[in-house]
Structure to design on (234 residues):
């Protein structure tokens, strides 16, 4: 019986504005990020060979440039992958009209608007907190969006593969650490108390198997243990 594996990979490091909590920054990979993306090719090949998994020919990527670049470098380096398809659904948590404002600017906006309360001190990392601004979402909201995409795409693969020879299929998704982490929580493969303790290494795969009963479990790759200083947007 075939196995179906979703391989989640955070983009490589990128040029990033300082003191900006929003992750919808449109910038490219930096030199380190390009090297990380190239190294991901070998990590994915090793994961495939070690486990006997066959690459699905399409990589799903977030539309943000750093993810798209990472995904395309991987696709160019693995002959079994034919193309990259990009999706807004795989983007990191959005801050709506506060996108690319600094932390101080955001907090000043909230302080000066009589409709809003002062946000909690840990608002950037609070999974359930959503800025009361147009278009903003919480980390939990972003995770649900990503989880829905993962479930939909993996279900399509399962349905299309039922009549084929038994193959264990791995599909690569390139996106963002916090959104992926919260997606895995929604899929039942992480506990809520683990969310604040974990992150993802740049361009290092973490793999999850979806079972026939639609449950998910972690099968390969390692989470990064999050430090107190690790406050950069994903």
């Amino acid at each position: 019986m075939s196995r179906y594996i979703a391989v989640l990979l955070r983009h490589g490091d990128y040029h990033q504005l300082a003191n900006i909590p929003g992750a919808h920054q449109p910038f490219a990979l930096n030199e380190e990020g390009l090297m990380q993306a190239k190294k991901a090719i070998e990590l994915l090949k090793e994961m495939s060979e070690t486990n006997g998994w066959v690459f699905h020919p399409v990589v799903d990527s977030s539309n943000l440039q750093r993810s798209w670049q990472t995904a395309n470098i991987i696709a160019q380096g693995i002959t079994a992958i034919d193309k990259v398809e990009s999706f807004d659904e795989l983007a990191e948590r959005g801050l709506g009209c506060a996108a690319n404002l600094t932390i101080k600017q955001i907090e000043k906006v909230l302080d000066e608007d009589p409709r809003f309360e002062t946000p909690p001190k840990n608002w950037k990392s609070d999974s359930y907190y959503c800025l009361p601004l147009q278009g903003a979402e919480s980390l939990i909201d972003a995770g649900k969006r990503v989880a829905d995409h993962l479930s939909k795409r993996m279900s399509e693969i399962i349905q299309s593969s039922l009549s084929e020879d038994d193959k264990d299929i791995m599909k690569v998704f390139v996106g963002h650490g916090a959104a992926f982490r919260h997606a895995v929580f929604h899929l039942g493969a992480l506990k809520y108390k683990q969310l604040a303790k974990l992150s993802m290494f740049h361009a290092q795969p973490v793999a999850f198997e979806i079972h026939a009963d639609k449950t998910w479990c972690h099968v390969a790759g390692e989470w990064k243990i999050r430090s107190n200083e690790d406050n950069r947007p994903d």
Residues 161 and 229 are 44 Å apart (CA to CA).
